[in-house]
Every structure is written in C-alpha cells, then in structure tokens.
Design goal:
Distance between the termini: 27 Å
Radius of gyration: 23 Å
Keywords: Cell membrane, Membrane, Transmembrane, Transmembrane helix
Number of strands: 0
Main location: membrane
Helix content: over 70%
Membrane topology: Multi-pass membrane protein
Strand content: under 5%
Protein name: ABC3 transporter permease C-terminal domain-containing protein
Shape: globular
InterPro entries: ABC3_permease_C (IPR003838), Membrane_comp_ABC_pdt (IPR038766)
C-alpha cells in the first residue's frame, strides 16, 4: 500500500518534485566531477592540487547533504494536506513515513544516475581546465571509476529520505483535524526545539570564529567553511522569526500601499516555508563574498595580486558551489510558489488583475531578497574577519563596490527566478483552470 500511496503522490505533486530532482541531479554532477578529478590526481606528485581536489569533494559532500535535504523537505511539505487526509481515513504514522521514504528514493535514484553521467563529462573538462592553467600536469589522464556511482547514489538517497522524513514528522504525528486546520490556515509554528537549535548553531558559529581569529592563517581558512555552514543552518532554522522581524521593519515602508501590505502578510504566513530557501540563498551569497573579499582584501593591504592560477581555481570552485546553492534556492522557492497556484488564482477571481498578482509576488521577492542579503552580509563578516586577521593582520575586510552591486543583483535574480518566474507561468491561463 505504501508504494501505491507514493506513486499517487508523485503523480499528484509532480511539479513539486521537479525542484528536488534537479537539485539532486546537480548534486550528483558536482560530487562525481570533484571525486573523479581527485582520484585522477591521487597518485600524482602535484600534492597541493590533489589535496585541493579532496577538499573540493568534501565541501561538495557537505553541500549535498544540506541542500538536497532542504529541497526534498520543501517538496514533502507541500503534501501536508494529503497526509492529513490519509491520517483521517486510518493511515498510521509509520505507514505515512514509509510512503514518504519511498517517494524520496524514487526521485533520488534516477536523478543520481543522470547527474553521475553528467559529472563524468564535467570531470573530464575540469581536469583539462586544471592542466590548461598549469595546476595539473599535462600528462594526467581522466579515468572512469565504475564503483563511484554507488557512493554518489547512497549520499543522494540518504539525504533525500532524511529530508523527507523530517518534513513528514509533524503531519504524520498530528491529529488529522489539527493537521487539516494547519494546512488551511498555514499558521507558522515555532517550536522551542527549532528555535533553540537555531540559536545554538548561530552561537557555535560565532564562537568558532572568535576562537580561530588568533590561529595560524591555514587553520583559520580550514575552519571558515564550518563557521559559515553553522551560521547558515542556524539562520535557516530561525528563518520564520527572522522573516517576521524583517516584515516588522519594512512594514512602515509598505504601509500606504495595498500591494505591499498584502505581500508582507503573505510572507508572514509563508515564513516557515520560505525559511528553507534562506539557507542556500544566504550560503551562496556569503560564500561568494568571503572568497572574493579574501582576495580583494589581500590585494588592498599588500598591494600585490595573488597568483593568477590560484585566483582562477578559487573563482572556479566558488562559481560551482554558488551555482549549486542557487539552484537549490530557486527550486525551494519555486516549490513554494507552485503550492500557491490556487491562492494566486483565487486572488484573480476576487478581482485582482494578473499584473496586480505579479506585483504582490515581486514585493514578496523584495522582502526575501533584502532579508537574505542582510543575513549573508552578517554571515560573511563573521566568517571573514578571522581569515583576514590571521592572514593579513587587519580586522576590516575590503570588498569593492562593484562586487557589492554584483552580489545584490545576483541575489535578486535568483529570488526572482524562484518566485516571479513560476508565478508568471502559473497565472498565464484562466484562474478557473488552476482551481480545477
């Protein structure tokens, strides 16, 4: 029966699972490319680049665990109403959890295979690019490793299933009437465990940043990623609280406009669903800011630019990871918008024009973008200060204005791609069709 429930859920919510599937494909691509490159350089005398590839593969693994789990969590959260109905007709919590696990595995396996094949091609190109920039010897050869598919699929399946099970905890255990009421009202619930864990992770990130500020530069660089990861996950858990605080700050600016008021109210109601997108969005912006500012601060303080090959390697790796996180952010936001298509149709039936509906979504995107940029700036600052202090002896990072503008535009583009674009596509037809 659980396989039947899973199959029906996949058919009924197929658009909600597009996001997790594409994120899993990107994850498998990045994992395969970095692992195959690391294995190709494993026994080569160029130890530094080999160690860098191992570090890249490790970071890719951490990001996969985090981002795949988040997108699958968002997809399963869209089924809360269906889960409540299943509970009402007698389905046990255990049966719900098993069905959800089957759904997650059914999405992860084909996405992992496709991503692995793409990753083999990407790994070959990546190795060639390293050789072209003098970072790898010209005679190094790319080799396909048959057994690598197994760990890649294992990581995707485990993270997808865990993310799905976490999303199903509350609706599977709640009483059907309570669950249906929560779905109808979309009340964001703030549990003490969630808030406590979020505060603990933020405190851990800040504490680790303070501890490594006086360590050797290499040790500070190695620990910086974990500072950032702890802070990003922490602010994600605190996302509903943070978004509501952002609304309280921006409401005076939108108080005179009906569109702005409606957008603020929508973000408040959807704060828990939208908080999942804050983690990859803040991670992408903060990661890019840290990497760029590390080089620009060094040039600003010393007056010398870093070696071109090292700068290229950092920029290429940063681009890959930021793209990975941006894909997860777009997919998470798009999953939320897809779940709102009936709400958007209802607005149009109530008299709102398509342009007015899209204006509301644009205002919502502005609130999310502003919140994410503020959080990313704080995370990047906490992460970057010990790096520049231990390596350059300064407490003040330097980031050129052009980099700030680029970061703001990139974040706005990512949020717009995940909110405004799917909203525009879902409102093209007649609203009655969406309700049907």
């Amino acid at each position: 029966m659980r396989a039947g429930i899973a199959a029906q859920a996949l058919r009924a919510h197929r658009w909600a699972f597009v996001g997790p599937a594409s994120t899993q494909t990107v994850a498998a691509t990045v994992l395969t490319a970095t692992l195959t490159t690391a294995l190709a350089l494993r026994d080569h005398p160029a130890a530094e680049i080999s160690e860098a590839m191992v570090a890249f593969a490790a970071i890719a693994g951490y990001l996969t665990v985090l981002l795949v789990g988040i997108t699958m969590n968002a997809a399963i959260a869209q089924q809360s109403g269906d889960i409540a109905l299943l509970r009402a007709v007698g389905a046990t919590p255990g049966r719900i959890r098993r069905a959800v696990a089957v759904e997650a595995a059914a999405i992860a396996l084909p996405a992992g295979v496709v991503g692995h094949l793409l990753g083999l091609a990407a790994g070959r190109e990546w190795l060639g690019a390293l050789a072209a920039h003098g970072l790898a010897p010209a005679d190094v050869r790319f080799a396909v490793v048959p057994w690598l598919l197994a760990p890649v699929l294992g990581v995707l399946v485990v993270t997808s299933v865990l993310g799905a099970l976490v999303a199903a905890i509350r609706p599977a255990r709640a009483r059907p009437a309570v669950a249906l009421a929560d779905v109808a009202t979309r009340r964001p619930r703030f549990t003490a465990v969630r808030v406590g864990l979020g505060l603990a992770l933020v405190a851990a990130g800040v504490t680790l940043s303070v501890l490594i500020a006086d360590r050797a530069a290499e040790a500070a660089d190695d620990a910086a990623f974990f500072v950032m990861l702890s802070l990003c996950v922490g602010v994600g858990l605190l996302g509903p609280v943070v978004l509501r605080a952002a609304i309280a700050v921006t409401r005076p600016l939108t108080g005179l406009a009906g569109t702005g008021r409606l957008a603020a109210d929508n973000v408040a109601v959807l704060s828990r669903a939208l908080s999942g997108a804050l983690v990859p969005l803040v991670l992408a912006v903060a990661f890019a800011a840290v990497k760029v500012a590390a080089h620009t601060t060094a040039t600003h303080v010393t007056g010398r630019a870093g070696p071109a090959a090292e700068v290229w390697l950092d920029a290429a790796g940063t681009g890959v990871y930021c793209l990975f996180a941006a894909v997860a952010a777009v997919n998470t936001l798009a999953t939320v918008v897809v779940g709102r298509r009936r709400d958007l149709a209802t607005l149009r039936l109530a008299g709102a024009t398509r342009g007015r509906v899209l204006a509301v979504v644009i205002c919502e995107a502005g609130i999310v973008t502003g919140t994410a940029l503020a959080l990313a700036t704080a995370v990047a600052g906490v992460t970057l200060v010990p790096i520049v202090h231990s390596g350059l002896g300064t407490w003040v990072p330097y980031l050129p204005p052009a980099a700030w503008v680029t970061g703001i535009l990139a974040a706005a583009a990512v949020v717009a791609a995940g909110t405004v674009l799917p909203a525009a596509l879902s409102t093209r037809g007649r609203p009655v069709e969406a309700l049907a």
